[in-house]
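Hey team,

Filing this mostly as a record. A colleague (T.K.) asked me to run one chain through the structure pipeline before their review meeting, and I want the input and output archived in the tracker in case anyone asks later how it was produced. No errors, nothing strange. Just documentation.

Input sequence:
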Amino acid sequence: MAPAVPLAVLALVALVAPGLGVAPPGCDYPAHRWCSSRDTAAACQVQSRCPSLPHPAAEPVQLSLYYESLCPACRQFLVLKLFPTWLLLPEEMLNITLVPYGNAQERNVSGKLDFKCQHGPEECLGNMMEACLMHEAQNFSTYFPLIFCLESGSSVTKNLEACLQIYAPELDSGYVTACVQGDTGMALMHHNAQVTDALQPPHQYVPWITVNGKHTDELQAQAEASLLGLVCHLYQ
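Output structure:
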């Protein structure tokens, strides 16, 4: 008479192994190892029966905002939509790129770069200040609150010191000023001009929003209506 097989063993085999322990083609592992790794579970076709397997991290939603520092609609989107959404979501869900340039025009005047902005010279200054803040701070979680502070205040170009004191007291305003007044600021704006001019389809207005590298009227409308809902829908 054959020895009795414990019920617990039968239950385990039935749980992890389709066909009561019969390995499917391509599975060269014993049944007790089928849930040992994601690759093994895939080879043995038992992923759905291995609840303890770690799930791979999803790629963050990539959102790029092409904007102007003094554009009312740009400021509204950044302050009321983008910044609150960034605060609410885990860092791994949303990756934001800010490109201050918008409808500006780059010109070469006697061998030197010059920029003409839709809302005048002050906007060109604001664009460059924010580009220099990104350059000097490097870390997004440091410079985004600073840009939020500038854009939500009474003056984008005159509140730098106050915003630094609140959000990044470790950052020296002298470095930002030197960037704005020197070649670095010009190089940063030239880069933003090239990136903006390379958009496909070409931007027609600001704010211009791309999601995962794409722009459509539908994505733009969804981002402006409910950015949090859009990101949560797209995050896989």
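Quick notes for T.K.: Confidence is low (pLDDT under 50) at residues 1-20. The two ends are 54 Å apart (CA to CA).
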